[in-house]
TrEMBL record, chain A:
<dbReference type="InterPro" id="IPR003593">
    <property type="entry name" value="AAA+_ATPase"/>
</dbReference>
<dbReference type="InterPro" id="IPR027417">
    <property type="entry name" value="P-loop_NTPase"/>
</dbReference>
<dbReference type="InterPro" id="IPR017871">
    <property type="entry name" value="ABC_transporter-like_CS"/>
</dbReference>
<dbReference type="Pfam" id="PF00005">
    <property type="entry name" value="ABC_tran"/>
</dbReference>
<dbReference type="InterPro" id="IPR005670">
    <property type="entry name" value="PstB-like"/>
</dbReference>
<dbReference type="GO" id="GO:0005524">
    <property type="term" value="F:ATP binding"/>
</dbReference>
<keyword id="KW-0067">ATP-binding</keyword>
<keyword id="KW-0813">Transport</keyword>
<dbReference type="InterPro" id="IPR003439">
    <property type="entry name" value="ABC_transporter-like_ATP-bd"/>
</dbReference>
From TrEMBL, chain B:
<keyword id="KW-0813">Transport</keyword>
<comment type="similarity">
    <text>Belongs to the binding-protein-dependent transport system permease family. CysTW subfamily.</text>
</comment>
<protein>
    <recommendedName>
        <fullName>Phosphate transport system permease protein PstA</fullName>
    </recommendedName>
</protein>
<dbReference type="Pfam" id="PF00528">
    <property type="entry name" value="BPD_transp_1"/>
</dbReference>
<dbReference type="InterPro" id="IPR000515">
    <property type="entry name" value="MetI-like"/>
</dbReference>
<keyword id="KW-0472">Membrane</keyword>
<feature type="transmembrane region" description="Helical">
    <location>
        <begin position="146"/>
        <end position="164"/>
    </location>
</feature>
<dbReference type="InterPro" id="IPR005672">
    <property type="entry name" value="Phosphate_PstA"/>
</dbReference>
<keyword id="KW-0812">Transmembrane</keyword>
């Protein structure tokens, strides 16, 4: 495929805010067998901002976020067309391997999914699979990542204990630390707080605010208040289409589409 | 409301509770029957075998004179056979399981292979003996050697190990594989560092249980031509050999009463070996038990 996107391309949205995109999504279509799950998706994801994706269950938001690191291809019956450009590279280009893409685009999952290993080994997993063996470097990466995920103080005295001994909220922050350890560019979060209690949710939300200084974050959430609290831009998905995509304050205070308004005021979904 | 007749509910209450009690009684009966048979078996073996059990019994070779007969050759033969069977069946079995679970496409052919593996687990062991006789003893020219015996035993327990390993691999949750792939790990890294370690307790348990089945097998090795009377220990993989169950079979088929007692002593040794192997399996399962 021919790619003619300038790295420095700067776009303007309705409020004339400028941003550098990390992802350009063009005419993305996706089918699960006969089921047309994503229809002509077209939008750009900004650098070092939090982009929230909201919408009712089954609208394709989880499917969409999983196309960004091609995790969606683990479903055998999936077919796709269109293109997703990540910083000048078409991610579907056979020359650009999924392993390379996923090193740049990390993911935090809905359910905390630590490995059945020690806390240290969980965080060191990423660097290790990329060939880093030096114990001193690993130690530093582990500490930096755990600090980055705001969990260092809670676990620094038990790094060698099994990660399953942590609470659900701690496990999720450990998973975020594990993701930070490969020093990604983008972090995808697929409903990261849906399995957590309110206090743990708050901690993760604060963490997201902290992380956006260094990372571009895409977050799928069921919780509209959460999207309003933590995101800079919000996309509203419905039946596999992007109904509206703009900065968060505009979308929640002054939506331009009737369906967005109905959804955020709780009339359906 | 009013759709349920309270009277008839009350009337049936008694019989429902009686049926509940009866079910419990039947299950206790079934368990009790097995325990009774096991108890009789153990009592018989201990009462017959214990008097003959001694250090000499373990370190002596077989003999025509019961008071000098021992199981040294058979014991070492069993250990030699296991030394061949364990690594061969583990490597082939786990490799097959990983291929089938992680790499093979789910289609009609793999389904066919799957059904056949499960069927092989139920094929009588003597059939594997004939297979081993044809392939290892005759075609490969190994003779009735430790190597031929060990390889035949590997074939016998391979299906069990494959099925047990597949089940262990299947219990590794999809979420932690996704976590690994999500960080840019390759398939092989994910298998080696995540799936295999998480499945290992289940794989080892299945392997050890399969091996303990092989320890007790007689038929395939008899077909291969394992000797019934051996007055030497195997020196290398091509030595001739005997194993514990064959020695026991030989003793029990003799007319003299004394040899029957010796067989009972041998059974005690065999049971101890099996008990140790099964305990190791339980220990591994408990030590590595992880909740997902």
């Amino acid at each position: 495929m021919d790619i003619t996107i300038n790295k420095q391309m700067v776009q303007k949205d309705k409020k004339n805010q400028e941003f550098t995109p990390v992802f350009n999504i063009n005419n993305l279509n996706l089918w699960y067998g006969q089921d047309h799950a994503l229809k002509d998706i077209k939008f750009d994801i900004p650098e070092k901002q939090v982009t929230a994706i909201i919408g009712p269950s089954g609208c394709g938001k989880s499917t969409f976020i999983k196309t960004l690191n091609r995790m969606v291809e683990m479903v055998p019956i999936v077919r796709m067309s269109g293109e997703i450009v990540y910083r000048d590279k078409n991610i579907f280009d056979p020359k650009y391997g999924v392993e390379e893409l996923r090193t740049q685009v990390g993911m935090v999952f809905q359910k905390p999914n630590p490995f059945p290993k020690s806390i240290y080994d969980n965080v060191a997993y990423g660097p290790r699979i990329h060939g880093i063996k030096n114990k001193k470097v690993l130690d530093e990466v582990v500490e930096k990542s755990l600090r980055g995920a705001a969990i260092w103080d809670e676990v620094k005295d038990r790094l060698n204990e099994n990660a399953y001994g942590l609470s659900g909220g701690q496990q999720q922050r450990l998973c975020i630390a594990r993701c930070l350890a490969i020093e990604p560019d983008v972090i995808l979060m697929d409903e990261p707080t849906s399995a957590l209690d309110p206090i743990s949710t708050l901690k993760v939300e604060e963490l997201v605010q902290e992380l956006k200084k260094d990372y571009s974050i895409v977050i799928v959430t069921h919780n509209m208040q959460q999207a309003a609290r933590i995101s800079d831009r919000t996309a509203f998905f419905l039946n596999g289409e992007v109904v509206e995509y703009t900065d968060t304050s505009t979308l929640f205070s002054n939506p331009s589409d009737k369906r967005t308004e109905d959804y955020i005021t709780g009339r359906f979904g | 409301m009013g759709l349920i007749n309270k009277e008839s509910v009350k009337k049936r209450m008694g019989s429902r509770i009686a049926a509940n009690g009866l079910a419990k009684f039947l299950f206790i009966l079934a368990t009790g029957f097995s325990l009774l048979v096991l108890g009789v078996l153990i009592y018989r073996i201990l009462s017959q075998g214990l008097p003959y059990l001694s250090f000499d019994f373990i370190t002596n070779f077989a003999s025509r004179m019961p008071e000098r007969a021992g199981i040294w050759a058979a014991l070492l033969g069993t250990i030699w056979i296991m030394a061949v069977t364990a690594p061969v069946s583990f490597i082939l079995g786990v490799g097959t399981a990983i291929y089938l679970e992680e790499y093979a496409k789910k289609n009609a052919f793999t389904k066919f292979v799957q059904v056949n593996i499960s069927n092989l687990a139920g094929v009588p062991s003597i059939v594997f003996g004939l297979l081993g006789l044809t392939i290892f003893v005759r075609l490969a020219g190994l003779g009735s050697s430790v190597l031929a015996g060990g390889l035949t035993m590997s074939l016998l327990i391979l299906p069990v190990i494959v099925v047990a390993s597949q089940e262990a691999i299947r219990t590794v949750p999809r979420e932690i594989r996704e976590a690994s792939f999500g960080m840019g790990a390759t398939k092989w890294q994910t298998i080696r560092r995540i799936v295999f370690p998480a499945a290992l307790p289940g794989i080892l348990t299945g392997t050890i249980l399969a091996l303990s089945r092989a320890v007790g097998e007689t038929a395939p090795l008899l077909v291969l031509g394992a000797l019934a009377y051996v007055a030497f220990v195997p020196e290398n993989l091509l030595s001739q050999f005997t194993v514990l169950p064959i020695q026991l079979y030989n003793w029990t088929s003799r007319p003299q009463e004394d040899f029957h007692m010796l067989a009972a002593s041998g059974i005690i040794i065999l049971l101890i070996i099996l008990l140790i192997m099964n305990s190791i399996a339980v220990l591994i399962r408990n030590k590595f038990h992880k909740r997902f």
